[in-house]
């Protein structure tokens, strides 16, 4: 059974030409897909549709064996599929790193002690313990990117949706992030312009062009 499936998705932003014109994909358990395409082709839009931040004009969104239509349908999806946004500032909103990472677990019903234990475990795993009490908005772009991944992993998702994850990272931090992602067990959908990253992390390639997805795996 696919973890996520988009079936003949059509979508357009108000006042603009359609972005997606029959896009379809299937993410199987353990699979890692990369999505390429020109700027503005709809790559981020696809990820947002998967977790219900946007709704298609037509077509079906299926997640974890069920069709998802209404907002309530996507609450479970957002617990099980973690989206790492292209811009970390869209995802980080608490005063400190620890509070940002604890937010998701507490939202899932963990008490404060349980949530903080998860914070310590995730930050240690990612080598970010030194940032625990830092003020989030004062972090560098690269630090924010890594903390954003920590906030998603704290939810223990089954699927990772990664939107240009090495954006704003220097070479050392990009290499570090890639090593972290390679070691994770989750299925992934990766949006990236970085061919080397795609080859290392998600070599099964789909190209979004003309509103449709085409297999470009060598």
UniProtKB/TrEMBL annotation:
The keyword Plastid does not apply. CDD domains: ABC_cobalt_CbiO_domain1. Gene3D superfamilies: P-loop containing nucleotide triphosphate hydrolases. Keywords: ATP-binding, Nucleotide-binding, Transport. Residues 4-217 form the ABC transporter domain. It comes from the Bacteria. The keyword Transit peptide does not apply. One of its GO terms (molecular function) is ATPase-coupled transmembrane transporter activity. One of its GO terms (cellular component) is ATP-binding cassette (ABC) transporter complex. Belongs to the ABC transporter superfamily. This is ATP-binding cassette domain-containing protein. It comes from Rhodovulum strictum.
């Amino acid at each position: 059974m696919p973890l996520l499936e988009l079936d003949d998705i059509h979508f357009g932003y108000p006042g603009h030409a359609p972005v997606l014109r029959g896009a379809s994909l299937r993410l199987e358990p353990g699979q890692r897909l990369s999505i390429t395409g020109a700027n503005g082709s709809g790559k981020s839009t696809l990820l947002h549709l998967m977790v219900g931040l946007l709704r298609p004009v037509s077509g079906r969104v299926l997640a974890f064996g069920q069709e998802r239509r209404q907002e309530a349908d996507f609450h479970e999806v957002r617990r099980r599929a973690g989206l790492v946004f292209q811009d970390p500032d869209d995802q980080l909103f608490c005063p400190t790193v620890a509070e940002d990472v604890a937010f998701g677990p507490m939202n899932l019903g963990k008490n404060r002690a349980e949530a903080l234990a998860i914070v310590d475990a995730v930050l240690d795993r990612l080598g970010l313990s030194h940032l625990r009490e830092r003020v989030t908005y004062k972090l560098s772009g690269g630090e924010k990117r890594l903390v954003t991944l920590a906030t998603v992993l704290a939810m223990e998702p089954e699927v990772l949706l990664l939107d240009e994850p090495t954006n704003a990272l220097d070479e050392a931090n990009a290499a570090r992030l890639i090593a972290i992602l390679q070691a994770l067990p989750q299925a992934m959908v990766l949006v990236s312009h970085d061919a080397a990253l795609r080859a290392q992390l998600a070599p099964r390639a789909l190209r979004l062009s003309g509103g449709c997805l085409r297999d470009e795996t060598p």
